[in-house]
Design brief:
Largest sheet: 8 strands, mixed
Domain Acyl-CoA dehydrogenase/oxidase N-terminal: 6-117
Pfam family, one: Acyl-CoA_dh_1
Structural class: alpha+beta
Family: Belongs to the acyl-CoA dehydrogenase family.
Radius of gyration: 21 Å
Number of domains: 3
CATH class of the largest domain: Mainly Alpha
EC number: 1.3.8.1
Distance between the termini: 28 Å
Oligomer: single chain
Domain Acyl-CoA dehydrogenase/oxidase C-terminal: 226-374
């Protein structure tokens, strides 16, 4: 697929690549992980200085109001250099949802996001929700001056370092309905909220939440009461596409590492790359990377389309990139041999990251099933 960048977009891509090359040292990455840092705060502030955290902040709120392509090129660099930053949660999903918040909240939170001073996490999953975004059992009850939230969230992306959470809760309708869903901003330190922090296999700090009668003011409602699902769907779609770009960046990086290893590692008196069987596997990895890139481009373009068609394209892209990314990651580890499984080698960490990207917002199997359901006669996209 041809996907030509404008001059400004190409400059942004080159800048992101240079930044990653200058600051993406794997030894320093491992040191931060071993210290238990939730994210690279210094790098996050530098990204704010470069304006990358303003990409998805509307111009009316002091941001750049950029499109999906600009987000894609930065997310690809984040994946390529395994950057330990909450870019998708705080730089993509949060500002997309905050556009529907009150003017006072936008003025406060958008500035904090753009300056790299806040981390805002979407609590996107529930214990019995599986990967279905509309399965929401958490309830919001109107009380004097606001709403009381009760329920549990099993996953909040980058929630281990979050200052605020965006919590979808149901104000009306059944637990699996797209109607009656409302979105609320909840500060991390509020009474009644228990944040259980966890460290995922890719060393990202996520969280699960327990809301025991958490009371938030009415001003913390994002969008209209009971009208939050379309906002949620749009924001998560944008987050999914940014995740696809991360995966493509990581795939390219791990393939290049593997090619270099095959060119230098010798066995039986010759380099591994001289063996025809391994050459075939290297070619298959290259094809998988190009296929994933084409699907990423298609999904990026689809973000500007109608919601129903957009969902079909993004589901197809998420399913296929999930399959190809895991193939490339596993091949990279296998072709490195036993050393590929060690903590000291980057390829093992790239594979873990690709596994978690595949799981985010539904794995390949889930999106393949969702796509199949949407293609049935009379089907309505979720």
């Amino acid at each position: 697929m041809n996907f030509d960048l404008s001059e400004e977009q190409q400059l942004l891509k080159d800048s992101a690549r240079r930044y990653g090359a200058d600051h993406g040292d794997f030894t320093a990455w491992r040191a931060r992980v071993e210290r238990g840092e939730a994210y690279d705060a210094a790098s996050w502030r530098r990204m704010a200085d470069l304006g990358w955290l303003m990409l998805n902040v509307p111009e009316d709120d002091g941001g750049l109001g950029a499109g999906p392509t600009e987000t894609m090129v930065v997310a690809e660099a984040v994946g390529r250099y395994l950057m330990l930053v909450p870019f998708v949660s705080t730089g993509v999903i949060a500002p997309t949802l905050l556009t529907a918040a009150t003017e006072a909240l936008r003025a406060h939170l958008m500035a904090g996001l753009a300056e790299g001073k806040l981390v805002i996490s979407l609590a996107d999953a529930e214990p019995n929700g599986r990967f279905d975004l509309n399965r929401i059992a958490t309830r919001a009850e109107a009380v004097e001056g606001g709403f009381r939230l009760t329920g549990a969230k099993s996953h909040a992306l980058d929630g281990g370092a979050a200052d605020w959470f965006i919590v979808p809760a149901r104000t009306t309708a059944a637990d699996d309905s797209q109607d009656g869903v409302s979105l609320f901003l909840v500060p991390a330190e509020i009474e009644g909220l228990t944040v259980m922090r966890s460290r995922a296999m890719d060393n990202r700090h996520n969280a699960s939440l327990k809301l025991d009668g958490v009371v938030v003011p009415a001003a913390n409602l994002i969008g209209g009461l009971g009208e939050g699902f379309p906002l949620l769907r749009d924001a998560v779609d944008r987050g999914v596409v940014a995740r696809l770009a991360e995966a493509v960046g990581a795939m390219d990086a791990v393939r290049e590492m593997t090619m270099e290893y095959l060119k230098t590692r010798k066995q039986f008196g010759q380099t591994l790359g001289a063996f025809q069987a391994l050459q075939h596997r290297a070619v298959d990895m290259a094809i998988a990377c190009e296929e994933a890139r084409s699907m990423m481009y298609l999904a990026t373009l689809a973000l500007s389309g109608a919601p129903v068609e957009r969902r079909k394209v993004i589901a197809a892209a998420k399913a296929r990139v999930g399959q190809t990314s895991l193939y490339v990651g596993r091949q990279a580890v296998q072709l490195h041999g036993g050393v590929g499984f060690t903590e000291e080698l980057a390829v093992a960490h790239y594979l873990k990251r690709l596994i978690m990207i595949d799981m985010a917002f539904g794995n390949a199997d889930h999106h393949r099933a969702e796509l199949a359901a949407s293609l049935r006669p009379g089907a309505v996209a979720a």
